[in-house]
């Protein structure tokens, strides 16, 4: 379908393989379109009873969107970015919605790096999904590190993590492994990477009426290898829930600063490297997202991403991390004390009238 997305149907299972290993399967517009095309074709095809999405590389399932493209397009004229940038986010979020509402079992093998846009194509709908993690899984919504916010439905799936885990993950952008992903409700089963080939073979040949149950049975012997005891999120849950219960990032930072515990101080140190503005925007996004549907979350995020490129914080973040690689972003404002409510509110101000919103048809 493209040079970077391969599709096949085996034993009535539609298989999507991401194959852009040099870029850790970072999503381009063409890849988004190829995945969407396959899912739309298979949605009403009685010969396809489930979808499995995986990577050709053990390094990454998908490291996110192609942020070099974001930087190039976002610096173009007019300021809001090129038409291709607008198309990318509209079509990517529409794909996220398609996956969340997909009527057939959707199996994502989240081996290796799973970040940003990779989470968007892995989280899927609550009734039909099956999210597999391995010992190599490195999961995150790290957008605050590049001056953005956790999009691709992050408003929805992070805000539904237990307690304040979603707020912690979104505001800090920290990376977690398999045990943490399971504890956070961002994965369903653990399978060792050495068994993934056998898992895919089983799925590709299974005659089971309930494919999700078949995967649960396959994975059952391995679950002890990802026990909650190995989860940092579980171990620090009390501290996390207490500190991240605040309604502002300033309150969260103050709470952490008053705690001498190593976890609290490490978290505060991480937050000092992130965009102060986008941490505040992220917290507000997640608080709002908790009361919204998937479609409403994605519409909100589509507005937010337009405002983000108008603001320019994301361009500075990408410059520091990917372009110049100096890891010394000049955040504006430079400190949490300088962020006020009006700055945050601008990211949620409508960019289009409701009848013209690019994602108005999502339901």
TrEMBL record:
This protein's UniProt keywords: Hydrolase
Gene3D superfamilies assigned to the protein according to its UniProt record, in alphabetical order: 2-enoyl-CoA Hydratase, Chain A, domain 1 (3.90.226.10)
Domain of life where this protein originates: Bacteria
CDD domains named among the record's database cross-references: crotonase-like
A Pfam family this chain is assigned to: ECH_2
InterPro entries linked: ClpP/crotonase-like_dom_sf, ECH_dom, HIBYL-CoA-H
Protein known as: Enoyl-CoA hydratase/isomerase family protein
Domain annotation Enoyl-CoA hydratase/isomerase: ranges: 13-348
Range of residues in the leader sequence: none
